[in-house]
Amino acid sequence: THWKHGGIVGVFGYGGGAIGRYCDQPGMFPGVEHFHTMRVNQPAGKYYTTDYLRQLTKLWDMRGSGMTNMHGATGDIILLGTTTPQLEEVFWELTHNLDQDLGGSGSNLRTPADCLGSSRCEYACYDTNALCHFLTNEYQDELHRPAFPYKFKFKLDGCPNGCVASIARSDMSFIGTWKDNIKIDQDAVNKYIENDAAYPANAGAHKGRDWGPFDIQKEVINLCPTGCMKMDGKELKIDNPNCNRCMHCINVMPRALKIGDVRGCSILCGAKAPILDGAQMGS
Ligand code: HEM
Ligand code: HEM
Ligand code: SF4
Ligand code: SF4
C-alpha cells in the first residue's frame, strides 16, 4: 500500500484533509484499489446533533466505505475509505449542505483539538471550546494550505489532567492552570478520612475492586509530587506556592478540594513526545 498524509490526492484549493491510500495490487484486492481517508474538522469539544451525525454517516455510506473513526488520533472525524472520484463529491456535500469543513493533514496545521472544558468539566481553568474554535477560524489558511515544511499542532487541555494529552500530541499545548490556592473543605476532607460512603475516593472511579479503607496519608499526601501537603490534627494543610497543580489530590478527593479561582492557561511551545524519552514538557 502507498500511504501519504496529503499530496497524492486532494480536493481543489486544499493542500490536505484527504489522505491517499492506493493498493499496489489492485488485481488481488479489487474492492480497495483506492481507500482514501478524509479528515473532517470536528467541532470544539466534539459536540454534535444526532441529525448532523445521521447526515454525515448517510453521506459516507453513499460515497465511501461507511466506516468511520470517531475520532482519529489527530482529533478529527475520520472517514475511512473512498475512491478518488468521490473526494470532490464528499467535499462539496460537506461544505455546501453540512456546514462542515475538512481538517488538516500533510504539512498543514492540524485541526486544533480540545477537551470539552468548562462546557461540562468542573476542573476547566479556561474555555477550551472558545479558544479551539477561535484558533480554528484564525488559522484557516494554514489548516488547508501547507505553510510549513512539516505538520504543526495545537491541542488544548482545560486543566493539567490533560484529557487530550496536549503535551504528547502537539507542538503548542495549552493547559489550564490557576495561581491562587486550592480550595479546601475541611469537613469534606474528614468525611473522606472517615470513609463516609457518600465520599468515595476518586469519585468512585476504581470501585470495581476492594482497595481497603481509604488512607489519606498513603493515597494522597505521600503521592503529592512536591510533598507540599500535610495533616495538622484534623486539618489538611497545603503549602500552595509549592503545589505544581498536578491535580492528584483533587482527583482523589473531588468533594473536598477544588481548583483555585484565579484561573488561566499555560502555553507550552515545542511540546513533544521523543521516541526514547516519552512525553516531555515544551520548552
Ligand atoms: C505500511 C503501511 C502504513 C504505514 C507505515 C502507516 C502509518 C501511519 C501513521 C504513522 C499514521 C499516523 C498515526 C496517527 O495519526 O496516530 C497513520 C494514520 C492512518 N493510517 Fe496508516 N499506515 C499504513 C497503512 C495504512 C493503510 C493500508 C490504511 C488504510 C487502509 C491506513 C489508514 C490510516 C488512517 C485512516 C490514518 C489516520 C488515523 C487517524 O487519524 O485516526 N494506513 N498511518
Ligand atoms: C514509538 C514511536 C512513535 C510514537 C509513539 C508515535 C506516535 C504518534 C502519534 C501519537 C501521532 C499522532 C499525533 C496526533 O495526535 O496528531 C503520530 C503521528 C505521526 N507519526 Fe508517529 N510515532 C512514533 C514513531 C514514528 C516514526 C518512527 C515515524 C516515521 C518514520 C512516525 C511518523 C508519523 C507521522 C508521519 C505522523 C503524522 C501523520 C499525520 O497525521 O500527518 N512516527 N505519531
Ligand atoms: S483536561 Fe481537565 S478540564 Fe479538560 S476535561 Fe480533562 S479534567 Fe476536565
Ligand atoms: S495538586 Fe498535586 S502538587 Fe498540588 S497539592 Fe495536590 S497533589 Fe500536591
TrEMBL record:
Pfam families assigned to the protein according to its UniProt record, in alphabetical order: NIR_SIR (PF01077)
Keywords for this protein: Iron, Iron-sulfur, Metal-binding, Oxidoreductase
GO MF, one example: metal ion binding
InterPro entries: DsrA, Nit/Sulf_reduc_fer-like_dom_sf, NO2/SO3_Rdtase_4Fe4S_dom, NO2/SO3_Rdtase_4Fe4S_sf
Superkingdom in the source lineage: Bacteria
Root EC class: oxidoreductase
Protein name: Dissimilatory sulfite reductase alpha subunit
